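ok trying this again, last paste got cut off
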Amino acid sequence: MVSAAPATLDLTVGAGVVLDGAEWLVELAEPHYGQVVLVGPATGERMRVSFRFLLNHTRCRPSTGTAALPAAGRGRQPATVGDLSSAGSWMPLPEVFTRSRRVD
């Protein structure tokens, strides 16, 4: 059985973590103690857990709904003007797939 590479778990203040299907936000990180304080955004409940607990928990994953970044920008290189293609490099759709022009 091949397992997927584990996702990096962001435990900085404001980062989101999904634990047992419920989303939590990191309110306080204490790396010198190896602990974080999680707060449930819906309930306001606080929970102090260790880094080890979160990293070894089978149902813990990073949240994709962290509001700190827009959805399109999470974990990606920022868009720049250089990403835009010039009008001269545009090709009709069939030519994109074949990289050649059909001669009739």
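PB: full thing came through this time. Helices lie at 51-56, 93-98.
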